[in-house]
Structures are given as structure tokens and as C-alpha cells.
Amino acid sequence: MGGYYLWSSSAFDSKSGQLILVALLVMIASFYTGTLFGTNSSLYNSISHLPSNSSSSPPPSPGTLSLSPSPSLDLYRALIVNCIPTFTNRVGLSYRRIPLTIPDTGMDICPLVFNEYIPCHNVTYVNELLPKLDLSRREELERHCPPLERRLFCLVPPPEDYKIPIRWPTSRDYVWRSNVNHTRLAKVKGGQNWVHEKDKLWWFPGGGTHFKHGASEYIERLGKMITNENGDLRSAGVFQILDVGCGVASFSAYLLPLNIQTMSFAPIDSHENQIQFALERGIAAMISSLATKQLPYPSSSFEMVHCSRCRVDWHKNEVCIKEKDDDYNSTDGILLKEVNRLLRSNGYFVYSAPPAYKQEKDFPLIWDKLTNLTSTMCWKLISRKVQTAIWIKPENQSCLLHNVEQKLINICDSVDDSNLSWNTPLRDCITLSKAQSHSHNLPPRPQRLSEYSRTLSSVGINQEKFISDTLYWQDQVRHYWRLMNTNETEVRNVMDMNAFCGGFAVALSTWPVWVMNIVPKSMNNTLSAIYNRGLIGAFHDWCEPFSTYPRSYDLLHANHLFSHYKNREEGCLLEDIMLEMDRIIRPQGTIIIRDEESIISRIRALAPKFLWDVESHLLENEQKTTEPVLICRKKFWAIL
Ligand SMILES: *[C@@H]1O[C@H](CO)[C@@H](O)[C@H](O)[C@H]1NC(C)=O
Ligand SMILES: *[C@@H]1O[C@H](CO)[C@@H](O)[C@H](O)[C@H]1NC(C)=O
Ligand SMILES: *[C@@H]1O[C@H](CO)[C@@H](O)[C@H](O)[C@H]1NC(C)=O
Ligand SMILES: *[C@@H]1O[C@H](CO)[C@@H](O)[C@H](O)[C@H]1NC(C)=O
Ligand SMILES: *[C@@H]1O[C@H](CO)[C@@H](O)[C@H](O)[C@H]1NC(C)=O
Ligand SMILES: *[C@@H]1O[C@H](CO)[C@@H](O)[C@H](O)[C@H]1NC(C)=O
Ligand SMILES: *[C@@H]1O[C@H](CO)[C@@H](O)[C@H](O)[C@H]1NC(C)=O
Ligand SMILES: *[C@@H]1O[C@H](CO)[C@@H](O)[C@H](O)[C@H]1NC(C)=O
Ligand SMILES: *[C@@H]1O[C@H](CO)[C@@H](O)[C@H](O)[C@H]1NC(C)=O
């Protein structure tokens, strides 16, 4: 089989396997799982999990050694057995206590069943809340974080037979089955070519519900629809897209050749684990849903919002009657108003769903409602073909002003621009864009990366500071690659946990990685400026876990994040944030932390308890004084 796959010689060469082994001599056990590609090896630290009533063996002692019965272990056995002492961590279900305590034996390891633990998307917990939720607005699909004492406080283990993910670009098409061992999606969506089973792999042919024959053809068709058959999406000025209900994110994957950046999201619903598949493939995505709250992205950030059978009822979702303004009766379409918020002017809303083309059932009625809503917002239907309708949000606001006068639509009270879209209820109104929205002046990528947004000046960042920040991160990223000692091909999914102006992501833009730029909710809104640079990201509050699966990222960057959260309430103590980092980083992934000395030494002391290897370095900060930098690496361990 090996010869058939182009990547078999490079992606899993035995030499790098050996190197990893040497670097990780403290490993207790390793196994050799390679059969498919011959030489891929996965290395584990093992934590045995003995049944508590086991009578044949002595009572379970913490960290008992258990070697896998793999025959090819012999070579390493002697070495490994000689350096047993590493672990004392215990497997056990532990919850976050107040005040927080970390066992002397190290962080507990959650039992294996929690290998896909996402604290704020626990279906069982949400079911408890159901009586209080507005189901007509699908509130149950949104984030619901349990109170602190009901959060797990243990390290999330990988599933059985987890393997270091297949690397980009191969991962676009193939991922390890055992890493996302869920068959439902393949069963339900195999016919639409979302994903198929192939031995030990999942194969993604690049299809989707509305692009069974591959996303490329579909993307080309959209480009033609917008440009009167002459051009592609790029020539239509589309560089940043929001994909609503993205499935396994094939749309995003096939936009990359056009250098179009896509933020993809989907809820956790019956299409099990779609986001997990997307992330495992190395495609930018997060869990989110459009229901009662604004999406955690800034206004005017996308040139296209895309919905291909995204299972959002755009024509429904009324705001609660009591919130209704007597003066004004149209309460429907609040979700489309959120799309309007996110779109740049001259941006497109692409809708590929049955109401756009089917004449049966209630589809024509839905279409009628939809077009009534879009016309009150003054969107213009520019094309309706095959199975897709496309509207444009025009720049000229005279129509909008007219509809406001007619009381067909509400204008939002001018809200302080500094408010971040985080836990903000949806608003049943339209914001008029500023005198001259400069969106259409944005240059294409890659020039867009150096775009300075004037909004930055209102938060005290002038152009000079912006440029020096950009240059600074170019320099730092060079240092990082040197210090990380990681093969560049091993890094694909990256998160900058405190992204400021996005300088770190810009510096990485020449590598084949994508960066999720996070702007904490307690910071100023620099995310709009990050989007204006052609990058993607989200608002987040690190007092809560992030909406993603465990083992999502290869690299986390935390620049002065911990000091920003210093002296905050329970829930975002240093240990809480470390635990969340451990959850979302992949085994053998790298975490770069820069901060003040006291924080760095605390993390360095705690790292072994989290099963992280850690190295300290010194680098210059922007003030040209040296500051400590930690390069942490999550060990690859597993419960055997
Ligand atoms: C990184 O990995 C690739 C593919 O495995 C390999 O071809 C390349 O030589 C490696 N580079 C370094 C610096 O080890
Ligand atoms: C206890 O041990 C018995 C015999 O080994 C086994 O059948 C049973 O499933 C175990 N119970 C638990 C809870 O592990
Ligand atoms: C999910 O919620 C249920 C009900 O609150 C709880 O019993 C369970 O432990 C939670 N699961 C996780 C993984 O937190
Ligand atoms: C997937 O999980 C099932 C049990 O749920 C197991 O039998 C199977 O071996 C797993 N497959 C892989 C590829 O890990
Ligand atoms: C809203 O509806 C009420 C009764 O349903 C009607 O009297 C009123 O004129 C309507 N207002 C507008 C602005 O259409
Ligand atoms: C759409 O608007 C037209 C004209 O204002 C109206 O006659 C029609 O009933 C509306 N359709 C729906 C479904 O609201
Ligand atoms: C906007 O549209 C109105 C009506 O179509 C037109 O009179 C006006 O000149 C337009 N404004 C601009 C700036 O193009
Ligand atoms: C904006 O933020 C302030 C302070 O957090 C808050 O009081 C206000 O209600 C917010 N406004 C909106 C419209 O969300
Ligand atoms: C936000 O911007 C204001 C105004 O420039 C500035 O004074 C403040 O320090 C900034 N806050 C943060 C957290 O950077």
C-alpha cells in the first residue's frame, strides 16, 4: 500500500521517529504501531489504569508501569525499563475545587471516557438546563459552561490508539481513524462525499451536501455567479469568508489555493464531531452556533458569509415578543441581521439550500419570507442559479435610510465601539456604517497583512507602534523556530491566545500554518484590526474553556496572557489556564509562554505535574530588555 501514497516516504520517515525517541528517553513505554506506512511510530508515556477490584494483582499503585505487548518493543525495552521513575500521576475523576489544589503526585488524569471532553458543550449538562432555554431559538446549541465546581480538574487523555496526526497537506485528505473514531458522519454523509472510511484512515474526497462532486467546482461556480462568468472569488474581492455550519470544512480547505481565509464553525449537533474532523485535517474551525448571541467575531470582518445547507432557519427565530418595539413590527430575521453585522459592505451572502431552488412543500413560502427580509435590509439578490442564491450588502445606504423612515427596520443605537462581541445578545437592528467604511479599500492578500486600521488609534496604537510590533514579531518568530527545535512540518494548527494586533500570525504567514487569533474579552478590541489584516480569530474569555475539542492545536502562544489574568477571580487562575492549554494542545505540541519572572517560575515548577517538558530561554521584549520565555512540550502519554 505504501507505494501508492505520495507522502509515505516523507511524512513518516524512520529517521524522525528515531530522533523523537532519543529526545524522549524518559518515556516509560513506546509502541510501534506502524503497519500501514511501514515506519510510523507513536511514543507513549503510559499510565496504567487497573480495575479497582483486581484481585490477581496488588492494589493499584499510582503510575504503575505497564508495557504494551507490542513485539517490536524489544529493541527499546531495556532502555525504557531503566528509566521508569517518571510518573506518579493517578487516573481518577477529579473536579475543580475551591480553593484549587494540585495533588503532590501531579495532576490527576481523567478516565479514558473523557477523551473528548469539552467543558462548555456537555450535552448532558445542557439537557439539565433545557427548561430554562429558549428552544425555539436553538439556545441549546450555544455554549453553556458549568459552574466551576462541576468542571473536571484532570488532564484529558487521548483515546485508545491515538496517533500523532498525519501532517498537512496530506491531512486535508486523510486522517487517522482512531483519532476521531466516530462513524456516524460517514454513514450519514458518505453519499455526499463528505468522508469515507478507508482502512485505518478517514478519507475526505472534498465533497459537501451542495458540492458532492468536490468543493473546487462549487467554488468556481460561485466565482462565476458573482463576476458575470468572468472571474473567480478572488477577482471578486473575496479574501475572508465565514462558513456557517461548515461540516468537515472542505469548503475552507479548497479555498486555500485562492489564498482565501475562512473561519468555519458549526455546533455540536447530530452531525457528530464535524469540527473535530476539520481540526484533525488541519483546517481552521471552531464550535459555535448562531442562535441567541452574537458570534464572537467583530463587525464588518468578512467579504462573504456562506451557508450551504447550514441548518440555520434564517427566516425564523423571532425575538421574544416582549422585547418588541411597538413602533415596529418586523421581528423576524434577527439571524440575517447578525450576518449583516459581520459582512463588510459590498460583501456577499451565499445561500445554498432547498428554498433557493425547490418549488415543493413550504420552500416557496420560506423563500418569500427570506427575500422580504433581505429587501428590508436592502440586500440585492445578484444571482440565483443551480442550487444557490447570492445577495450583496450594498455600500450605498440610501435605501436603508429610506426603510428606516418607513419603520421597516430598526437602526441600532450607536453603541460604544469598544464593546466586544462576547456573550452579547443578538440585536434586532442594523448598524449604519460609518461615513466612509474603508472596507473596499482593503488591498488583497498578502498586502493586506500590513494594513493598519484606524480603529487602532482609538485604543492607543499608532502606526509607528503597529509597524514596530510587526517587525518585532518577525524577529521573535525566527527565534521561536530555533528554540522550539521542531520540524516545521509538524506545526499546522496554531493559536495566539493573546493576539494584540496579530503580529505573531503575520510573521507566521509564510509558513503552511493557520493561526486562530484570540483577543481576550477584557482587552481592547484589536480583533477588528486583525481581520482587516486578512487574518482570522475570535473573542474569548480565558476564565472559561474554549469551544474546541481536546488535541486541536500544534502550537499555543501565550504572550503576557497570564499576567493579564493575574488577580482575576476563580476560574482563570494560572492553573486553570494551564489545564485548558493542556486540553487543547496535541500530544508533543509546543506551548510558548512569555511573561514576568514570577509567573514563569510558577509555570516552570508546575509543568512536570502537567506532564510537560519545559525549557527556559531569554529573549528581548519590545522594550529591548530581556524577558523569560518558556518552551513547553506536552509529553505523549496514554492510559494503557
Ligand atoms: C522535516 O520533515 C520533513 C518530512 O518528514 C523532512 O523531509 C525534512 O528533512 C525535515 N526537516 C528537518 C529540518 O528535520
Ligand atoms: C471485578 O473483577 C471481576 C473479576 O475479575 C470482573 O468480572 C468485574 O467486571 C470487575 N468489576 C469491576 C467494577 O471492575
Ligand atoms: C456532563 O454533565 C453531566 C450532568 O451535569 C455530568 O454528570 C457529567 O459529569 C458532565 N460531564 C463532563 C465530562 O463534565
Ligand atoms: C473505534 O472504536 C471501536 C469501539 O467503539 C473499536 O472497536 C474500534 O477498534 C475503534 N477503531 C479504531 C480505528 O480505533
Ligand atoms: C404594527 O402592528 C400593529 C397591530 O398589529 C399596527 O396597528 C401597527 O400599525 C403596526 N405598525 C407598523 C409600524 O406597521
Ligand atoms: C412579503 O412581502 C410582500 C409584499 O410586502 C407581502 O405581500 C408578502 O405577504 C410577504 N411575504 C411573507 C411570507 O411575509
Ligand atoms: C445612493 O443611491 C441613491 C439612490 O439610488 C443615489 O441617488 C445616490 O447618488 C447614491 N449615493 C452614492 C454615494 O452613490
Ligand atoms: C457595552 O459594555 C458595557 C460595559 O461592559 C455594558 O455596560 C453595556 O451594556 C454594553 N453595551 C451593549 C450594547 O452590549
Ligand atoms: C485600551 O485602550 C485605552 C485607550 O487608549 C488604553 O488607555 C488602555 O490601556 C487599553 N487597555 C488595554 C488592556 O490595553
From TrEMBL:
Gene3D superfamilies: Vaccinia Virus protein VP39. Its EC number is 2.1.1.-. It is a single-pass type II membrane protein. The chain crosses the membrane at residues 20-39. Belongs to the methyltransferase superfamily. One of its GO terms (biological process) is methylation. Keywords: Glycoprotein, Membrane, Methyltransferase, Signal-anchor, Transferase, Transmembrane, Transmembrane helix. It is an enzyme of class 2 (transferase). GO terms for molecular function: methyltransferase activity. It is found in: Golgi apparatus membrane; Membrane. One of its GO terms (cellular component) is Golgi membrane. This is Methyltransferase. Coiled coil: none annotated.
